[in-house]
């Protein structure tokens, strides 16, 4: 029951030897797959899909039926946590996520509750349990959350942003208000991820999509500090097995040493950082996940294969690498190109694990 048929992903995160480099793709369940679009249409809207354990399980498994991926990732969203805090998440057609009640004042922050993961977020735990049952031990299941900073950007901006005017205004004009918000988010995320682990997530990942828009000092104070407190609060072992934690700050290539010092097991890196240099910098402290530019998947399979070969060569011989994209897969990529990426990862990496 507890045995995994393929544990390469977990082994690589713990820098143990593997036969080939494990591979998965951020946002591997999604709109580039026609079967995803069909299930999403059946559910109605995106949040109804997330709230339906059977359908969330179905879309989690869809990419695994097509490609020999080494991990499954829970189908959900990082914005479930602010939604559970009462902000009213909705998706406007073609406009991305929005909140009905964004956080605009210190008073709003003081009133925010810390959600009970088994209550308001119980639908996520049901999805985790359903997916674990249906995976039948084929590959590990990754649970996830947004970082406090990244969640705060959506909560204060009211949705996606390119310039982050409102949250930066709060950061510089009312830093204590932002710190209170981040503290509440960090406490919520610890409860949420520990509940995912108890429900069956075998590894967890923290997405800090917007940490890279900060200065180095602000990154440490407003983003990394809270990810560090989450790492400290996580249940790192479950049913006798270590639950590895991956931190991913998009655009965080300058801060890898500081990120590795949090005690996490692995760092996700995007394509703007050379993975060979990243490895030299973090040494044997953490594993690395990455880092192909997702746009390479627009290229023909031969070109995708070249890029996989280049990443494997830069990382070099031995343990500690999980192949992935440097950010989520684009929605207009041909599924066969994603297949070429996964296939090349396994075929070309064998000689690096002798
Ligand atoms: O990786 C997976 O396959 C698991 C599912 C997953 C989703 N979102 C599904 C989703 C994960 C891990 C996320 C994380 C997420 N969500 C992040 C961090 C990772 C990153 O990409 O930077 C962020 C910033 C979000 C917030 C979010 N959710 C945005 C900005 C959007 C709209 C963007 C878009 O692609 O339209 C979403 C919606 C969303 N989350 C979709 C999916 C498949 C598209 C919804 C749809 O079906 O229309």
Automatic annotation (TrEMBL):
- Tell where it localizes: Cytoplasm
Task: Write out the GO MF terms.
Answer: uroporphyrinogen decarboxylase activity
Q: In which pathway does it act?
A: Porphyrin-containing compound metabolism; protoporphyrin-IX biosynthesis; coproporphyrinogen-III from 5-aminolevulinate: step 4/4
- Listed InterPro entries: UROD/MetE-like_sf (IPR038071), Uroporphyrinogen_deCO2ase_HemE (IPR006361), Uroporphyrinogen_deCOase (IPR000257)
Main subcellular localisation: cytoplasm
Q: What keyword terms does UniProt attach to this protein? A: Cytoplasm, Decarboxylase, Lyase, Porphyrin biosynthesis
Top-level class of the enzyme under EC nomenclature: lyase
What this protein catalyses is: uroporphyrinogen III + 4 H(+) = coproporphyrinogen III + 4 CO2
Query: Where is the secretion signal located?
Result: none
Instruction: Extract one GO cellular component term from the record.
Output: cytosol
Which CDD domains does this UniProt record tie to the protein?
Answer: URO-D
Q: Where is this site: Transition state stabilizer?
A: 77
EC number of the protein: 4.1.1.37
Where the record annotates domain Uroporphyrinogen decarboxylase (URO-D), the positions are: 22-31, 142-158
A GO biological process this protein is involved in? protoporphyrinogen IX biosynthetic process from glutamate
Positions of substrate binding = 27-31, 77, 154, 209, 327
Family of the protein in this entry: Belongs to the uroporphyrinogen decarboxylase family.
Q: What does this protein do?
A: Catalyzes the decarboxylation of four acetate groups of uroporphyrinogen-III to yield coproporphyrinogen-III.
Which NCBIfam families did the record assign? hemE
What is the protein's name according to its record?
Answer: Uroporphyrinogen decarboxylase
């Amino acid at each position: 029951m507890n045995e995994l048929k393929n544990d390469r992903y977990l082994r690589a995160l713990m820098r143990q030897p593997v036969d080939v480099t494990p591979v998965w793709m951020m946002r591997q369940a999604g709109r580039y797959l026609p079967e995803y679009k069909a299930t999403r249409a059946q559910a109605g809207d995106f949040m109804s899909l997330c709230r339906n354990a059977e359908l969330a399980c179905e879309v989690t498994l869809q990419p695994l039926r097509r490609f020999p991926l080494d991990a499954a990732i829970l189908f959900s969203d990082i914005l479930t946590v602010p939604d559970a805090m009462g902000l009213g998440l909705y998706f406007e057609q073609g406009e991305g996520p929005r909140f009905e009640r964004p956080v605009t004042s210190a008073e709003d922050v003081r009133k925010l509750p810390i959600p009970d993961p088994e209550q308001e977020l119980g639908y996520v735990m049901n999805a985790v349990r359903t997916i674990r049952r249906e995976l039948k031990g084929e590959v590990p299941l990754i649970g996830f959350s947004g970082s406090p900073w990244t969640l705060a950007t959506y909560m204060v901006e009211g949705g996606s942003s390119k310039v982050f005017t409102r949250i930066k205004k709060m950061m510089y004009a009312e830093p204590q208000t932002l710190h209170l918000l981040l503290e509440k988010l960090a406490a919520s995320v610890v409860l949420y991820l520990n509940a995912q682990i108890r429900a069956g997530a075998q590894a967890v990942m923290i997405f800090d999509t917007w940490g890279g828009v900060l200065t180095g000092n602000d990154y440490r104070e407003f983003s990394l500090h809270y990810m560090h407190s989450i790492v400290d609060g996580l249940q790192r072992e479950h049913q006798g097995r270590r639950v590895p934690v991956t931190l991913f700050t998009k655009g965080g290539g300058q801060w890898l040493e500081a990120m590795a010092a949090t005690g996490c097991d692995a760092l996700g890196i995007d394509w703007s950082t050379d993975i060979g240099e990243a490895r030299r910098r973090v040494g044997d402290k953490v594993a690395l996940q990455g880092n192909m530019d997702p746009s390479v998947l627009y290229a023909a399979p031969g070109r995708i294969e070249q890029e996989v070969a280049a990443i494997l060569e830069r990382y070099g011989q031995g343990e500690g690498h999980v192949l992935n994209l440097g950010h989520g897969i684009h929605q207009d990529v041909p599924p066969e190109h994603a297949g070429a990426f996964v296939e090349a990862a396994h075929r070309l990496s064998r000689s690096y694990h002798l």
